[in-house]
Amino acid sequence: MDFSKGIVAGGDSFKGQKWTILGQPYRPLHLTPSSLLMHAEFGPGSFVPTHVHETQDEILHILEGVMEFELEGRTINAGAGDTVSLPMGIAHALYNRSDALARALVVVSPTGRMYDYMIAISGLSDPAEVVRLGAEHEIQFV
Questions:
Q1: Which Pfam families match (predicted)?
Q2: Of 103, 104, 101, 105, whose CA–CA distance to 44 is shortest?
C-alpha cells in the first residue's frame, strides 16, 4: 500500500480517490499505518449506525454544520470548530438531524483495516453488506 507524503491540494484526495458510503461522499486525505484522515460530508438526515472500533480511536473535527453523537448513553451535539473524540471500544453513532449539510475531518488511529473497509463498501447500497464487511474489517455494528 502506498502511503501519504507531500501535499494533497484543496479539494483533491489521496491518489484521487473519492468514496460514496451509503450515499455520503468521503475523500481520503492522508494514509499511514498509524493514521487515516478523511474529509466527510453528511447530508441532512444522514447517519452512521451504532458501531464499535475495537482497535482504533476515531476523532471528528466538525468543519461545518451540526452533528449529533450518541456515546455511552449520552447525546452530544457538536458544531463547527468542535472536536469529538471516540475512543476505541466505545459504541457510538453519528447523525445529521439538521436541514443543512455537515462537513467533518475524520481521523482513525491506528489505520488498521479501515482504509480497506472504506474501499470495500464504497458504492454499496445494501446496509446488510456494509455490516457484514465491517465485521471482516474490525468494525462491529451493534
A1: Cupin_2
A2: 101
What is the reported pTM?
Answer: 0.93
Q: Is the pLDDT of residue 19 over 80?
A: yes
Distance CA 22, CA 41 (A): 11
Dump pLDDT digits (tens) for 25-54: 999 999 999 999 999 999 999 999 999 999
Contact (CB, 8 A) for 67 and 95: yes
- The pLDDT assigned to 3 comes to 74
Q: What is the chain's percent helix, strand, coil content, to nearest 5?
A: 15, 45, 40
pLDDT for residue 125: 87
**Site of grid cell 447525546:** 75
Cα 97 to Cα 26: distance, rounded to the nearest angstrom: 19
Sequence-ordered alpha helix ranges (H) in the chain: 114-121, 127-136
Q: Which CATH class is domain 25-141?
A: mainly beta
